[in-house]
């Protein structure tokens, strides 16, 4: 497989005729509400090149509609925007990597292997793991990454915690069913060490 990235097709849309501006890569330029430089024209999804995932496009459309029809000033927030690769093994991630986070934060990193959980051991999953990235002072979740079976499902708990404030207590202190694969997520947050 060769993944060469994505390019804009705004030229096919002929947006230049509308006066709508595009960025240096050819994607339609938008503000935090998905509005273009032309009042009343919005661009969501792949057209704006921000985060080219269907689930992000759905949320961008909601932000745009609420702004256009109700004057809602709530901007689009990409801080808890997840992505997944449905390969073998599966990969899922939300937020920053440890390298990205350490540029602006003092961080803690927690790691857990699937084999550290009873379910992971029963699955005989010897390669899969999860990694949590947390701000050392605030204990806010900055990122979470999973490689292994059901990774996109496992990362959802962290996405929900990040959207609702991002404090690790929501995961670390909650009760997780045993045996259950979500214990992997909790284990990663319980294994935090300075990076």
What does this structure look like?
The structure is a single chain. This protein is of the alpha+beta class. It folds into 2 domains: 61 residues, no CATH class; 113 residues, FAD/NAD-linked reductase, C-terminal dimerisation domain (Enolase-like, domain 1), CATH 3.30.390. Helix content is 29%, strand content 17%. Strands 1-2-5-4-3-6 form a 6-stranded antiparallel sheet. Strand 4 and strand 5 form a beta hairpin. It starts with 9 loop residues before the first helix and ends with a strand. The mean pLDDT is 94.
Task: Write a compact overview of the structure shown.
29% of the residues lie in helices and 17% in strands.
List the helices and strands and how they pair.
Blueprint: H1 10-13, H2 54-70, E1 82-85, E2 91-95, H3 98-102, E3 107-113, H4 118-122, E4 129-135, E5 141-147, H5 151-163, H6 169-172, H7 183-190, E6 192-194
Strand order of the largest sheet: 1-2-5-4-3-6
Which architecture of the largest domain does the CATH hierarchy give at level 2? Answer: 2-Layer Sandwich
Label the structural class: alpha+beta
Q: Gap between N and C termini, in Å? A: 34 Å
CATH homologous superfamily title of the largest domain: FAD/NAD-linked reductase, C-terminal dimerisation domain
Number of domains: 2
Low-confidence stretches: none
User: What oligomeric assembly is this protein in?
Assistant: single chain
Question: Element order, helices and strands?
Answer: HHEEHEHEEHHHE
**Which percent range describes the beta-strand content?**
15-25%
Mean pLDDT: 94
**CATH-assigned fold name of the largest domain:** Enolase-like, domain 1
As a percent range, the share of helical residues equals 25-40%
Radius of gyration: 19 Å
């Amino acid at each position: 497989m060769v993944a060469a990235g994505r390019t804009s097709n705004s030229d096919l849309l002929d947006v230049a005729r509308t006066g709508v501006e595009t960025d240096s890569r050819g994607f339609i330029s938008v503000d935090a509400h998905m509005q273009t430089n032309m009042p009343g024209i919005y661009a969501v999804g792949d057209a704006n090149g921000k985060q080219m995932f269907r689930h992000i496009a759905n949320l961008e459309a909601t932000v745009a509609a609420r702004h256009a029809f109700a004057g809602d000033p709530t901007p689009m927030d990409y801080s808890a925007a997840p992505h997944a690769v449905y390969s073998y093994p599966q990969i899922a991630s939300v937020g920053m990597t440890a390298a990205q986070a350490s540029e602006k934060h003092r961080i803690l990193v927690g790691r857990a292997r699937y084999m550290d959980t009873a379910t992971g051991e029963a699955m005989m999953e010897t390669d899969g793991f999860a990694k949590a990235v947390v701000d050392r002072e605030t204990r806010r979740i900055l990122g979470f990454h999973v490689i292994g079976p059901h990774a996109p499902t496992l990362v959802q708990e962290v996405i929900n915690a990040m959207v609702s404030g991002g404090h690790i207590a929501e995961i670390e202190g909650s009760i997780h069913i045993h045996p259950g694969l979500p214990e992997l997520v909790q284990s990663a947050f319980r294994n935090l060490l300075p990076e």
